[in-house]
TrEMBL record:
One of its GO terms (biological process) is lipid oxidation. Ca(2+) binds at G17, D80, A81. InterPro entries: LipOase, LipOase_C, LipOase_C_sf, LipOase_CS, LipOase_mml, PLAT/LH2_dom, PLAT/LH2_dom_sf, PLAT_LOX_verte. It comes from Zosterops lateralis melanops. Residues 2-119 form the PLAT domain. PROSITE patterns: LIPOXYGENASE_2 (PS00081), LIPOXYGENASE_3 (PS51393), PLAT (PS50095). Pathway: Lipid metabolism. Binds 1 Fe cation per subunit. GO terms for molecular function: iron ion binding; oxidoreductase activity, acting on single donors with incorporation of molecular oxygen, incorporation of two atoms of oxygen. This is Arachidonate lipoxygenase 3.
Length: 663
């Protein structure tokens, strides 16, 4: 007779417990414990959340090393889903086996859970094959639109299984927040006013008087702040150093001489690396929409910036189209105040689209979903990279499914509240994906490629690099622990299928992107995993968390423009400006979304927090603690810098950076 001591733990979330019947079978190398032993044998003895239950399993013989457990759930009357946290089994010889589960059991079902250390055994090979076959049936790709990354094959959040849905507490928090914000804007009358704002000052009345929006309302007209936002705003990845002016942007030395200061000229500044450019060509000829029956307009501007002797970036020339000529003048800081302000506002409007559709939606949310779906399809639960990556996909499939239902769908918020039609939105993302490179997804390479290594006050770069290096160091520890060398990487067929799936369905098999379709070495694997984790955590935080801060004062990030770009100078004035930027109702619509998307919902998990203990060995757990220690040091450095700053850059503070794309 062999007696095994079994402890089963229920998760801590609301409704994790069950009153359905639960039993367990132990599977060892020499045999199984039969029949299944009851953990929660009857509705009279429910299993509440956050509790453990212990039992002894008596077997006629020693089962050998325990490699697998089976959890059986059935019901007599009402269904009551159960979230199992983990199971621990102590063998008669004192050996402890841990089985991290972290999943919902729904309906009448049997779930097999492998021992956490990932030992190999012939029984497990079949288990692994069955698990992946089940997952590939449950998580399928679909084409959302031509030329887009593929996404999960569901049409609404109600089709998502419990393991990838928002928790109940988060779902309630999200809905409550949306209703409250929508109602308050409705009651204040903003959502019903289809007229222009009466004045610039009136626009301050729509947002709460918090520090950053107030700062923006005060400084939005300053050239310094305009330049600052290309480094530390919501879209800090579009600016690059300019060494040769493009022919389509014929700025002459005379035009900018006054902006450059004495003792230098445009040629010298270009040569010495102090000229920068932003090009919104991706917006050229994008179909435009009507809002409340009125035609909207989109420009594809070019903006030239100069780094002054004080280190600050300031715009020195703006052209609002990709085609120079008499109908597309080059605007300069020396122009009339309203001409220059309107030109800068057109750039900010182009930046709104570039940020929302490409930097935010495509390059974090959609790629994050690709990584998540490929992981579910190709990496079994026992795979160390599944354990490493899954926490970084927490709630991503839910928020993206929601976005496809209410935000980017025909008639959704972007369609209604911005100047692009639904077709235009599809086209921008399609063009964006055609231009994505692996270099641009890997921060150190991206900074070098854009020539931005030495620009001062580039906090996105500095904080981002600190986080990249911390993630890379953690990933290096995990990969070297589990992979003995390059041959182990190239020979891991599950890993290779995973990378190929990402390449094929995320980047549509475009080799010119430089995105790998296979990984041959430990170094290649470390870089790829760092990119995935950075994209899903830090990069999303950098481009998501400041949306309300920087967008609450609408002239700083207008979602739409109601007059065409000016063809000549000298025609802009205050009323024309107010009649160009979004009317009150559109402002309110967009603001409700920005508040929600920048909010900190309940249940959020910060970078480096791994409440699910997928790894059971000592070394990965030590690596997690070391990673958390590094993040604390980064936090201290950022807070020390912010303490002295007039405008804090806090979007990459680990205290503000979530583990995953969840909002
Ligand atoms: Fe987001």
């Amino acid at each position: 007779m062999a007696v095994y001591k079994v402890t089963v733990a229920t998760g801590d979330m609301l409704e994790a417990g069950t009153n359905n019947s639960i039993s367990i079978t132990l599977v060892g190398s020499y045999g199984e414990s039969l029949p299944p032993q009851g953990i929660c044998p009857s509705p009279q003895k429910p299993f509440p959340p956050l509790q453990e239950r212990s039992l002894s399993v008596h077997c006629g013989q020693d089962l050998g090393p325990i490699v697998l457990i089976r959890l059986h759930k059935w019901r007599l009357f009402l269904e009551d889903a159960w979230f199992c946290k983990d199971v621990r089994v102590t063998a008669p010889n004192g050996t402890l086996y841990r089985f991290p589960c972290y999943q919902w059991l729904e309906g009448v079902t049997t779930v097999e859970v492998r021992e956490g250390s990932g030992r190999t055994h012939p029984i497990l090979k079949e288990h692994r094959r069955r698990e992946l076959a089940t997952r590939q049936e449950a998580y399928r790709w679909k084409n959302y639109a031509q030329g887009w990354p593929r996404c999960l094959n569901v049409d609404s959040i109600f089709e998502l299984d419990s393991n990838i849905q928002f928790s109940r507490i988060r779902a309630n928090n999200f809905t409550g927040f949306l209703i409250f914000q929508g109602a308050s804007h409705f009651l204040s009358g903003f959502l019903l006013r289809r007229t222009s704002w009466n004045s610039l000052d009136e626009m301050r009345t729509i947002f709460s008087r918090t520090q950053v929006p107030e700062y923006v309302a005060k400084h939005w007209q300053d050239d310094d702040f305009f330049g600052f936002q290309f480094l530390n705003g919501n879209n800090p990845i579009v600016i690059h150093r300019c060494t040769t002016l493009p022919l389509k942007f014929p700025v002459t030395p005379e035009m900018v001489a006054g902006s450059l200061g004495g003792g230098t000229d445009l040629g010298k500044e270009l040569q010495e690396g102090r000229i920068f450019i932003v090009d919104y060509k991706v917006l050229e000829d994008i179909p435009t929409d009507t809002i409340y029956g009125r035609q909207q307009y989109i420009a594809a501007p070019l903006c030239l910036l100069h780094q002054g002797t004080d280190g600050l970036l300031r715009p020195i020339a703006i052209q609002l189209s990709q085609t120079p000529g008499p109908c597309s003048p080059i605007f300069l800081p020396s122009d009339d105040e309203w001409d220059w302000l309107l030109a800068k506002t057109w750039v900010r409007n182009a930046d709104f689209y570039s940020h929302q559709l490409l930097t935010h939606l495509l390059r974090t949310h959609l790629f994050g979903e690709v990584f998540a779906v490929a992981t579910l399809r190709h990496l079994p639960t026992c795979h160390p990279l599944f354990k490493l990556l899954m926490p970084h996909f927490h709630f991503t499939l839910h928020i993206n499914t929601l976005a496809r239902s209410v935000l980017i769908n025909p008639g959704g918020l972007i369609d209604k509240g911005s100047g692009v039609t639904y077709e235009g939105l599809l086209l921008v993302v399609q063009r964006g994906l055609e231009q994505v490179t692996y270099t641009s997804l890997c921060l150190p390479d991206d900074i070098r490629h854009r020539g931005m290594s030495h620009v001062p006050n580039y906090h996105y770069r500095d904080d981002g690099m600190s986080l990249w290096e911390a993630i890379e160091s953690f990933v290096t520890g995990i990969v070297t622990f589990y992979y003995g060398g390059d041959a182990a990487v190239s020979g891991d067929t599950e890993l290779q299928a995973w990378v190929m799936d990402i390449f094929t369905n995320g980047f549509l098999g475009r080799t010119s992107s430089g995105v790998p379709s296979s990984l041959q070495t430990v170094a290649e694997l470390i870089k790829f995993l760092t990119m995935v984790m950075f994209t899903c955590s830090a990069q999303h935080a950098a481009v998501n968390n400041g949306q309300y801060d920087l967008g609450a004062f609408v002239p700083n990030a207008p979602s739409s423009m109601r007059h065409p770009p000016p063809c000549e100078k000298g025609r802009a004035f205050l009323q024309h400006f107010l009649d160009t930027i979004p009317e009150v109702a559109t402002t309110a619509n967009i603001l409700v979304a920005l508040i929600l998307l920048s909010s900190q919902l309940k249940d959020r998990r910060l970078l480096g927090q791994y409440p699910e203990e997928w790894f059971t060995e000592a070394e990965p757990r030590r690596l997690i603690r070391a990673f958390q220690g590094q993040l604390e040091e980064i936090r201290d450095r950022i807070e020390e810098r912010n303490h002295l700053a007039e405008l804090r850059y806090n979007y990459l503070n680990p205290l503000e950076t979530e583990n995953s794309i969840s909002i």
